[in-house]
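Structure tokens please, single chain.
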Amino acid sequence: MEFFNSHVLSIMTFLPLMVAAAIFIVPDDKFARVAALGGSILTFFVSLHVWHYFNAGSAKIQFVESYVWMPEFGIRAIFGVDGISLLLVMLTTALTPLVILSLWNSHVSNLRYFFGALLALQTGMLGALVALDLVFFYVFWEVMLIPMYFIIGIWGGARRIYATTKFILYTVVGSLLMLAAAIVLYISYHRQTGIYSTSILDLYNASLDTTTQLWLFGCFALAFAIKVPMWPFHTWLPDAHVEAPTAGSVILAGVLLKMGTYGFLRFAIPMFPLAVKSFAPILVFLGVVGIIYGALTAWVQQDAKKLVAYSSVSHLGFVVVGSVSLLADGSLSVEALTGAIYQMINHGVSTGALFFLVGVIYERRHTRMLADFGGLASVMPWFSVMLIIATLGSVGLPGTGGFVGEFLILLGTYQSSPVAAVMSATGVLLGAIYMLTLCRKLLFGPVTHDENKKMKDLSPLEFSYLVPLALLVIIMGVFPDFFLAKSKASIEHLAKNYRSYSLAIDSH
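Here you go.
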């Protein structure tokens, strides 16, 4: 038990990769199904151990593991979690088993390789969230691209090669800029201290002049902005979502996009505090434009999946605005930052459910065009219930997680910039318009096509992965403190101290 407690993060991170390796070795789809689901559920239970024993009253890094890798260059494998990364870790481990469960009866070609790619992707995502060494973060950051490339490129739609090529080109350009900035930061720290180190706990204390910080922040911010994606770097996202299989879209929207906003909070903001004051108004402006642009573009879409894809651009614009809302005293807004982190989790839950539901009707009709549907409420009542719950969570109805996140973001942003808050609030209204339009065109009116009359309602398998998400939408709205209590100390520490940021390690 002591070994488990001392290595719980590395076990959680690499367990999916070990299961993926077994799946690749054993040429049997039945084994792949059982191993993938069992491995992902086991990973979730390991993360529950971290959740249960996490000290909510501390802002320190907890469950720290450190392994020597290249000591002469100061590179170590350091893993740890705080309140900022913990919720995203739980989202990743909770969503992956549901995605794998959704593929249980799938008949796609090379299914075991699909499962293996999903599990390898999970290792990349978890590694990026727990890595406290810049080199290892970068490795996991790049590792995430490879499985997603194959998921879209092999099992995607007709334009999958175009979508994957665009996805890789955008993200690799941003990654190379981040790598260049990381090398400059590494060399600068050595010149100041005489010590080689890639630990972010050390690099937080690097003393950089304003000009250097501006350049380095710009490189990191561009990499993260592409991953979010922020307007105008968003154009790869709709193509990737539309061409990706349903499981790929759920993981992409649910977790992968959050790596960009997480990167801002873990790296760009605390590492380059002098640059934040200069870049914050630009990022808020781009976030507000993204909120409105994404909502308006989603409103005019005729493809249900593309509508949900553009809604992600709008919702993650809220997260960006909340992450960089500076108050008059120069600190970050605690309310806005709390809302940004909560909105990341809510978006993963509600938008993940929406992509699942779009996949349900696509499997039955092999079309996602809104004009091909109508009247499904009378044909598929349980599907309609799930769609309405996911929609209400997405538009931020009081009593859902979306309301908590957006309300806190707008509250904190108003203290920083009333104009930005008011402009962002239009995204709430527009969100209600395009999401309720989606419901109206799919669910209500007469059943206009004979094929729709034959559509079956949700199967027990579909219930099994949709009900947990629907419950989470409501639980997050009714009991937000259950989730936020774990992050409160870390959020307050970052908001108040980012200009002289340092993180201590919990020795217990």
